Amino acid sequence: MTQQKGVFERQITGLEVQAEAEQTVSADQERHRLLAGLPQLGRLLEQEGIQRLLSDYPRTWVSEALRELLADRRGRLKAGEEVEVWAVDSERWEERAREKLEERERPRLVRVINATGVVLHTNLGRAPLGRLACERLQELAGTYTNLEFDLQRRERGSRQSLLESALCAVTGAEAALVVNNNAAAVMLMLQAMSAGREVILSRGEMVEIGGSFRMPEVMEVAGVRLREVGTTNRTHLRDYEQAISEETGLLLKVHRSNFVIEGFVKEVEAEALVGLGHRRGVSVMVDQGSGMLMEPPAHWGERGWSVRALHRAGADVVTWSGDKLFGGPQCGVITGKASWIKKAAKLPIARALRVDKLTLAALEATVQVYAYGDDIAWRDIPVLSALSTDAEALYEQAEFWVQRWRAALKRGGWSLSWEKAEARVGGGSLPALTLPTARLCLGSAVHSVSLFEAALRTRTIPIIGLLERGCLWLDLRTWLSGDAEAVSCLFEEMAGSREDLRSHRE
Ligand SMILES: *Cc1c(COP(=O)(O)O)cnc(C)c1O
Fold first, then answer.
1. Ligand 1: distance of its center to the CA of 137 in Å?
2. Which of 182, 219, 355 is the pocket-test mutation for ligand 1 (most atoms within 8 Å of CB)?
3. Where in the sequence is the domain holding 411, given as residue range(s)?
4. Pocket residues for ligand 1 (CB within 6 Å)?
């Protein structure tokens, strides 16, 4: 048909039109030929290479990958793009499909290297667990456990009682309950201790922790009424005292985890608040937040805020996160008076907030480290050890890295140096504290540092550093064991051929 039309056009409109038409016709024909030449899915599935894929992956995955490849090529052909022709038995089908399948089975939650210097990085999963906790998880994850079985009495046990005495021993509390996170712990205890009644809270402690955890809203959800006292910067004991009435269910103190108020300020310390509460027959709860158990060094400015200090001061209930400075798994720990904790555990909402065996396993192992002694905890709990690492040791390490790699990296087009800097604790703990630290600095006159940084984020083990002043900074304070090897591998690659890293060039 088209051929005939071409002939007809030549007769009436001349040579140019005929040439153009023939060209269109032949491009069209070529496209049709290529489209028709795309193999059938069924035929592809019979090929030897694809059969190999089928022994590694589910058939539905392989079919989907091939269908995607076919659709992609069909689309590009139709759009007039130049597409390489692959015969049905071409190895390219297997190659490309395998890439897709590998991408598909790649875990989305992966280990990353925290080179930000932020010890408790909320986006990077807060506290990494210590060795003992990891071993316990490994041991228990794939087995049955006595989670709710009393091995002595051969009867139903309680998951909550498994850790209670250990938690009490390390905190000095009378009882303990573990829930899913500290937000849940606060909500549960407000409900248990003050449902339908007033909770007195200083205006200086009406915090937003992040996400949607804002104290006034939490109280609404928990079914308690907020009674604000004092001002943003100053709250006195008499402010609490004057607010106490028949309606009062609880005096609440909240750690200002992610901000500081400086200047003309006054707050009532937990001890004084507990004194007032007990004189007037009102319970006192402290949302401590970080789970710092022991008294930290004086320059942290946290005097009186450790979980132990709060229990010594007589707080009825203290709530804290398992995965902040405590250095355990994500959970919320409630420590305090047995009567309140018993009441909370019986509320229907407690069932919705309960933790699983893996959380309890990791928490128990972490608690055990504290039970061995404070010095052991400072050494073996990764966040505590990161916070207490001597700056001089980090400076020495940085100098070592620069000496070891500067020349090699230079051959690859990179400069390496280091600088002293300030690391932050992060993760809603110790907002005012910075720690002296050392950062490696990678710069380049030939490579794009920002493209390089992006490439680091998509490596098998992504490395998260800081982009600043046109350089990539890797803070040494937050490296964990094994991270140095991964960075060495990276430097090796960077030192290698410039060609390998051409993709980082703009
Ligand atoms: C972090 C924090 C919370 C929230 O704890 P999650 O474990 O993140 O739910 C609540 N209160 C304070 C004071 C905190 O520091």
1. 24
2. 182
3. 388-502
4. 181-183, 186, 209, 213, 254-255, 257, 287, 289-290, 321, 332, 428
Which pLDDT tens digit goes with each residue over 275-317? Answer: 999 999 999 999 999 999 999 999 888 999 999 999 999 999 9
Residue 111 lies in a domain: no
* CB 303, CB 271: distance < 8 Å: no
Q: Within this chain, do residues 46 and 192 fall inside the same structural domain, yes or no?
A: no
Question: Separation of 320 CA from ligand 1 center, angstroms?
Answer: 7
How many independent structural domains does the chain possess?
3
* Residues paired with 420 in a beta bridge: 438
Residues 374 and 445 in one domain: no
Which residue, by CA, sits nearest to atom 15 of ligand 1? 289
Residue 112 forms part of a structural domain = no
State the DSSP H helix or E strand holding residue 23, giving kind and residue range, or none if neither: helix 15-37
Which residue CA neighbors atom 11 of ligand 1 most closely?
289
Ligand 1 pocket test target in 212, 214, 287 with most atoms within 8 Å of CB:
287
379, 414, 445 - which closes a domain: 379
The continuous run of DSSP H or E covering 463 comes out as strand 463-464
Residues 85, 228, single domain; the answer is no
What count of other Cβ atoms lies within 10 Å of the Cβ of residue 125? 15
H-helix segments, 235-347: 237-243, 270-280, 307-312, 338-346
Indicate the pTM of the whole model: 0.89
